Amino acid sequence: MNPVFRWFHQLGSPPYFYRFATRALPWFGIPALLLAAVGLYLGLLKVPADYLQGDSFRIMYIHVPSAWMSMFIYVLMAVYGAIALIWRIKITEILFLACAPIGAMFTAITLITGMLWGKPTWGAYWVWDARLTSELVLLFLYFGVMALASAYDDLRQGARAAAVLALVGVVNIPIIHFSVQWWNTLHQGETVRIFGKSSIDGSMLWPLLIMALATKLYFIFALLLRARGSLLEQERGKQWVRDMLVRGRA
Amino acid sequence: MNHLRPYTALLERDLRLAFRRRADLLMPLGFAVLVVLLFGIALGGTPERLAPVAAPVIWVTVLLAGFLSLDGLFRPDVEDGTLDQWLAGSSSIVGLMYGKALAHWFLYGVGMTLSTPLLAMLLNLPVDLLPVMLIALGIGTLGATQIGLIAAALTARLRRSGILLALIVMPLYLPLLIFGSGAVDAVRLGESPRAALLLLAAQTVLLLTLAPPAAAAALRIGSENPP
Fold it and tell me: Which residue, of A106, A107, A175, B114, has the fewest CB within 10 Å?
């Protein structure tokens, strides 16, 4: 068999996945930490202040990468959910469940930083802006997935039920997003949009991209860490867990 | 049309069961009147203050009233084993879901739409907004029922589902609410409600296509034996 495919198949086995995750953790965690340090240093201290917004724009270096991650993680979660429903791979159920709290955290960070930025810029913590509103709905979609999964006594049934909900959510996200935009334009004519993709200066862009990479790596780190934990919990009756705990190594 | 028999039988059974308990049938309406009463009192009861918010209040009230009946959508079938019979039987679960959804819409959606004039009267809704309100509610409740069907199927086998149902259903109601009350708003501002109504109908058609299969998949999950 092709070695890449074989590696992929082996990852489906809980003990193999556990060993892989343990070895992979520092390779994602340490670069995430270093990149975040560099990105935050450049973004918060080095980049010149914005001519219009002064220093308050710097919150963007946390806000924008978190917003990207909040949506990316939901889609990835739905992909894991679909794989779990179709092929019933235990690892993907665990990865699916591990995505939800991380995604909810990024969504919450996006909302909080957005509100903090909104106060000096728009004059209010909460504005019924289209993006802000759909981000709030996204947070509740995450909460729904988490609450449904934990309401089932059986972990695997809970994961699959929540996977159905995540797929329903992923179909609905574009509808919610565009309907909120439609609703918003109906009420207030124009929206405040200061960061156009092309209008950002290069010196401001680089720290943003570094932060985006840092959040991605952190996500993989947190995902593997969580998956490892729930794998041990779910497989606690199995021989490989016992062997590993006794010998300290799998 | 013999192959449709199991599904029409289910529709018939659900409707008959509901009409056997007429008091339960009026519960959503009673709930809606109570919510409207609370709003009327909180808003001071003057027509000048009630009229502008009448349409949104009716929309939220109707969605909440429909949400109340969701917990009972599959629970009796789970408890008396009917659900397991469906899953073991040869009829298509998706077809049965259509029967279930239509029965729920007839009982709650059509019922609530028909009682809207009463709520509108209580809230001093301008009379010229009533026709568009009724059309929007008729379409919107059919979509809301589909969302409720998925949520009820996902929580059918859980012991308690109250707040969890709300958490699942409410965010998904949002687009229906936007276009539903948007259509009424358009008429209020003297514009055509056509765009909003068409988008509302498009969403309902999409939900009618996707929700029953999703609900069927959700019901199957609960019946699988834990490994």
Answer: B114
B151: left (phi over 0), alpha (psi -120 to 50) or beta: alpha
Q: Chain B residues within 8 A (CB-CB) of chain A?
A: 150, 154-155, 158, 161, 164, 167-168, 170-172, 174-175, 178-179, 182, 185, 199, 203, 206, 210, 214, 217-218, 221-222, 224, 226-227
Q: What DSSP string runs through B75-108? A: HHHHHTTHHHHHHHSSS-HHHHHHHHHHHHIIII
Domain coverage including residue B10? 2-223
State whether B171 and A176 contact (CB < 8 Å).
Answer: yes
Residue A87, CB-side half-sphere exposure with 13 Å CA sphere: 9
Q: Which pLDDT belongs to residue B1? A: 58
- What number of other Cβ atoms are within 10 A of residue A185's Cβ? 12
Q: How many residues does chain B have?
A: 227
Q: Are B154 and A164 within 8 A, CB to CB?
A: yes
Check B154 against A161: CB less than 8 A apart.
yes
**pLDDT one-digit tens code per residue, B41-79:** 999 888 888 888 999 999 999 999 988 888 888 988 888
Q: Is A238 within 8 Å of chain B by CB?
A: no
Contact (Cβ atoms closer than 8 angstroms) between residue B152 and residue B73: yes
Tell me how many domains chain B contains.
Answer: 1
